[in-house]
Amino acid sequence: MKKILCAIDASTYGPSLCDHAAWFALRSGASVDVLHVLNRAETGSGPRLDLSGSVGLGASEALLEKLTQADEARGQAAQAHGRAMLEGARARLQAAGVAEVNLVHRHGEVAETLIELEKDADLVIIGKRGESHNFAEGHLGAKVERVVRGSSRPILVAPRVFMPITRVMVAYDGGASATKALDHVLGNPVFADIEVVVAIIGDPGAQRDGRVANAEARLAGRAQASVKALEGDVETVLKGALRKGEGDLLVMGAYGHSRIRELIVGSTTTAMIRTGKVPVLLFR
Fold it and tell me: What distance in Å separates the CA atoms of residue 244 and residue 36, rounded to the nearest whole number?
């Protein structure tokens, strides 16, 4: 792992995002690019309010000019705030021991910018809720799914508080994205001394037995690794295991079913990000 891309905003997730980035960077020797994106409304570069009708209400040219200046001042303040947040993130990462921290300040749309910049990164880190939904418990940030679905890189969706990672739970269903996730954990030096638990959830039978055998073969020779065959609803079982402390990080494939099926039965990916208390590392 050479580079981590960490996206921050004015939400309370900033410190946690930096701490998660530091954890991965220190274990891999990677640099960290900290990204903050100002949208057009914040910078004043978006569509301006049409004030021409105000003239009929007695508004003078001077008043219209003051309103325009106020709009520009808000844009300048937003840019200054963004730069200050980036500097604060750099200070936090450097204090944690990260050697190389780069600051990236962009204007535009967050999801589009992340997908554009991720090509140079090995890992992308985002918060599960943005500044507009800081304390909306159970709400998933609108941009998170767009980023995950549009990304080709591993995406870490971080909760509000960082906790040390000592055990990784991999949700394995035998599919391509889950296999990619498991192989990444087993082959990445970041997780070399971390306990790995592979959770295989399903009804007893040949299909589950085949997945267990496949996972055990991949774990061959790996210390601190085990397979757990579990029964029940995938979402319920995973949440229960994580609540019991069986994983400080959940690793799983992302959005393995069609959008139509997810509209009908829901998405395990979305549910685990939305209500979970641990970071989720996703693979497409």
Answer: 35
Residue 53 lies in a domain: no
Closest CA to 112 of 82, 78, 151: 151
Q: Please report where in the chains the tokens 């993130």 appear, as a residue.
A: 89
CA distance 15 to 8: 9
167-187 confidence digits (pLDDT tens): 999 999 998 999 999 999 999
Q: What is the pLDDT of residue 204?
A: 92
In the chain, % helix, strand, coil (3-state, to 5) comes to 50, 20, 30
Range of the domain at 143: 3-42+78-157
Are 113 and 184 within one domain?
Answer: no
3-class DSSP state for residue 15? helix
Beta bridge partners of 231: none
Q: Which residue has the higher pLDDT, 142 or 121?
A: 121
The closest alpha carbon to 34, from 70, 88, 107, belongs to: 88
Q: What does the DSSP 8-state code read for residue 107?
A: E
How many Å apart are CA 257 and CA 259, to the nearest integer? 7
Distance CA(75)–CA(145), nearest Å, equals 28
Indicate whether 82 belongs to any domain: yes
279 within 8 A of 249, measured Cβ to Cβ: yes
- Cα separation, 197 vs 253, whole angstroms: 15
